[in-house]
Design brief:
14% helix, Thrombin, subunit H, 2 helices, single chain, alpha+beta, 6-stranded antiparallel β-barrel
Length: 132
């Protein structure tokens, strides 16, 4: 069964603790949206009720699917605040941030005058120079 999501999952790496009535497991959220998360490093049976503990704040969820070392958790209500929501917003902001300027490095051949400005038919003397 394929379920369509209303929200895009954002790639994150957030260490968390998953707590149930019987267990307390350590894992990490690797993708997150307001409606759910994928957790790696631990697993619970599908249908299990659990809570995600992060910085003293609890987010409740239900395990929707489970594999050997990862599981998908759906939140009963969309997140709108708290430390987990803050981490989601920070990850989204990082995706929107422009990449820092990095000058293009010219190949060694171009630097020696084999091509580019000053190369070609005028030789390797630089822009607009005739050398011969």
């Amino acid at each position: 069964m394929h379920v369509l999501r209303n929200r895009e999952r954002i790639i994150v790496d957030i260490p968390i603790v998953i707590t149930t009535v019987l267990d307390c497991l350590e894992g990490a959220i690797v993708d997150l949206s307001e409606g759910g998360a994928q957790v790696v490093g631990c697993t619970l049976p599908a249908g299990s009720q659990c809570q995600i503990d992060l910085d003293g704040h609890v987010t409740f969820g239900t395990v929707r699917w489970s594999e050997e070392d990862r599981m998908g958790i759906r939140f009963p209500y969309e997140m709108t605040d708290g430390p987990l929501f803050d981490k989601l917003e920070q990850a989204r902001a990082a995706l929107r941030a422009p990449a820092p300027f990095q000058p293009r490095v010219r190949p060694a051949q171009a630097m020696a005058g084999g091509s580019g400005f000053g190369g070609g038919s005028f030789g390797g003397g630089g822009f607009g120079r005739r050398t011969g």
